[in-house]
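User: Can you predict the 3D structure for this chain?
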Amino acid sequence: MKFCFFAAETNQALDARQRLIDQHGNYSMEDCDVIVALGGDGSMLRALHESIRLKKPVYGMNRGSIGFLLNEFREHDLQDRIKRAQTVILNPLRMTVRTMTGATQDALAVNEVSLLRETRQAAKLRITIDGIVRLDELICDGLIFSTPAGSTAYNLSAHGPIIPLSAGILALTPISAFRPRRWRGALLPQSSRLTISILEARNRPVSAVADFTEIRDVESVEVWQDNAVDISLLFDPEMNLDERMIKEQFMP
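Assistant: Here is the predicted structure, written as structure tokens:
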């Protein structure tokens, strides 16, 4: 089995990468069988984005802090661990943005698409789902549209729900909603097509972020789950991701 070791730019991750290369060698992403990500969830996210165009599975080992999407780090038995690993298939969100200049741009998000105000003034957003206006005006600091895999990340910190992978839903979570003050977000079917229109865009500019791809001064954003794109994550059997997401909901 041929590995490509993808590491965060930290001493802990780089040291682990070198030790693993000494044992297994190292191949390019194009030539490897498996991408092995070393670091935290941010590094794992970058490795997953790299894997999309190459259709390579990703096996992560935690050399960072939280490491929710990664397995426990061990130097030995890597070949056997990957042979025994379970595969989880993720479908990312696809974001299409139109900016105030009229330009359009696409990006993919494994975790979430977020809209964020750029200035001291709150954003004003109109929410349309499958062609129906559901919220005519949301005044807020921003909005998060999250996948199940990303529901324990930014979405959770904004008091959004944790979503099991098999639930078939996506989370729409406001950031500091001012009006309507009591709106706490929504759970939507994965087939939903979300359109966000930026109201008063020039006076209240908004940026759109798909994971780590940021586009500023947007006028409208359309987001949907792209089922044509498959991402393969490998997990040790004892690191079952559905079980970890259930446990996370009962953490003190």
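The CA atoms of residues 82 and 232 lie 13 Å apart. Residues 93-225 form a domain with the Tumour Suppressor Smad4 fold (CATH 2.60.200.30).
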